[in-house]
Amino acid sequence: xxxxxxxxxxxxxxxxxxxxxxxxxxxxxxxxxxxxxxxxxxxxxxxxxxxxxxxxxxxxxxxxxxxxxxxxxxxxxxxxxxxxxxxxxxxxxxxxxxxxxxxxxxxxxxxxxxxxxxxxxxxxxxxxxxxxxxxxxxxxxxxxxxxxxxxxxxxxxxxxxxxxxxxxxxxxxxxxxxxxxxxxxxxxxxxxxxxxxxxxxxxxxxxxxxxxxxxxxxxxxxxxxxxxxxxxxxxxxxxxxxxxxxxxxxxxxxxxxxxxxxxxxxxxxxxxxxxxxxxxxxxxxxxxxxxxxxxxxxxxxxxxxxxxxxxxxxxxxxxxxxxxxxxxxxxxxxxxxxxxxxxxxxxxxxxxxxxxxxxxxxxxxxxxxxxxxxxxxxxxxxxxx
Length: 385
Known about the structure:
Layout lengths: L9 H4 L2 H14 L5 E3 L7 E5 L2 E7 L3 H122 L4 H35 L7 E3 L1 H15 L6 E5 L5 E3 L1 H21 L9 E8 L2 E8 L6 H4 L19 H11 L3 E7 L3 E9 L7
Parallel strand pairs: 5-7
Antiparallel strand pairs: 1-3, 2-3, 4-6, 7-8, 8-10, 9-10
Helix pairs in contact: 3-4, 4-5, 5-6, 6-8
């Protein structure tokens, strides 16, 4: 749409229909039909707008033509003003619409940024929740280990002294038995009775030695006599864990030990003992779940030096781990055992313990063949034993 600053033509100001209607109305006012054209003809008078000739009016008398031309110019002025107002309104509306579009785009961009920030915040919240859950789990395990340590301390204190008395008295009784053998009249019944008495004393002394050994293993397992981090002798921790698992399964497991000479390493003996026990317990459970004869089930425990690290390998020929479960064995509370038979934290604790010692856990398993767990412990601060 043109404005006052432009030089509009007659066609810009009036459409063909409007021009035809204007000619008809002016013809009714004049004595002869009137024609409004853009070309000059004989006897026509100019029609001016903004001091510019925009058309020529013919028809009617001379005075009627001049009056009609002035009337058309007057009408064109109001048409132009209307067009100008319409243009201003249109331009304002377009500008407002463009501004609204700009604000809408800005709002969309702001919403996208807030949505992205919200997602980032949610990710951070989820990460913090996982950290809190992990810390809670570690606190739970730490509290459980401390409870075991306190229990072992109580057992050691309450049992060690009586076991010492019993063991000492049994040795004295065995010595007395030899004196009795000389004092009692020789007869087949008396000799048989004395031999049975000697066997009973020997079995009792063996029993007290086993009880003392179990108490010693509990002390090593829970590390009640050591600080949180101290020098650990991996082979001793492994042997204690093996003895405890054997006791747990009534000494029915066939466990072979191939332990190389290892240096002592700085670590947390209680958590390492818990790790070895957990892996051995899983191996024992795998043997129990297999279809083979119990006598065919075997567990191999190895320790060796590999460069600047210690490797502990615990291998069994049990049922193995299915491919579907292999990716979840380290998930907290995941277990394939029946409800109430396992917490699903054994390998999770083992992995976290090895990570705390800058080491790692690797599991290789085939269903129906067995599982090999390799525990790697760096020799930080190692000392030759």
